[in-house]
Amino acid sequence: MLRQMMYSSRARSETYETDLPEILRCSRRNNPEMGITGVLILVGEAPNITYIQAIEGEREHLDLLVDTISGDPRHTGLKILLDQEVEARAFAAWSMGGMVVPPSVADAGRIEAEVRDALCRFSGPSACTLISQIAKVAA
Questions:
Q1: Is the residue at 39 inside a domain?
Q2: Which CATH number characterizes residue 45's domain?
Q3: Per-residue pLDDT for 18 more than 90?
Q4: Total tally of structural domains belonging to the chain
Q5: What does each C-alpha distance from 120 to 80, 130, 134 come to in angstroms?
């Protein structure tokens, strides 16, 4: 059975703008081998940057990935927000999607609309079910 997780964390580094492309590059290189898919979203502006990531795959692969992510010095305060078994992937086409929610999108409703529009354009309807949870965390 597939597992789906979502976590949030705080960017630790002032280099978050260059960290995000590097994280996405490594994820897109490594995730297909482990069968992991997902999306990484950066919300806020310095010094209050939040990473929100949804990942999905087999339990043992996600456990290894979360261990690796937990030890990454580019962020702190990792909180697991969702951990559930699912029948189908929400982000099947993405080894790792990425987006930045502009700082001008300040409230949960606008964050939800911004993220929903972006993700629903590129993913199936099951991805859209995570959007309100992401918006609540990001607000």
A1: yes
A2: 3.30.70.100
A3: no
A4: 1
A5: 23, 11, 14
Cα separation values, 16 from 8, 22, 48, 86, Å: 15, 10, 11, 31
Condensed to tens digits (0 to 9), the pLDDT of residues 72-89 reads 988 999 999 889 898 888
The answer to whether residue 94 sits within a structural domain is: yes
In this structure, is the dihedral angle defined by the CA atoms of residues 117, 123, 129 and 131, taken in order, positive or negative?
negative
Q: Please say whether the dihedral angle defined by the alpha carbons of residues 112, 42, 85 and 34, taken in this order, is positive or negative.
A: positive
pLDDT at 63: 94
Query: Any residues with CB less than 8 A from the CB of 27 and at least 6 apart, and which?
Result: 36, 38, 40, 95, 96
Q: Are 22 and 95 in contact (CB under 8 A)?
A: no
- 115, part of any domain: no
Q: Which domain holds residue 34?
A: 2-104
Nearest CA to 9 among 63, 59, 69, 55?
A: 69
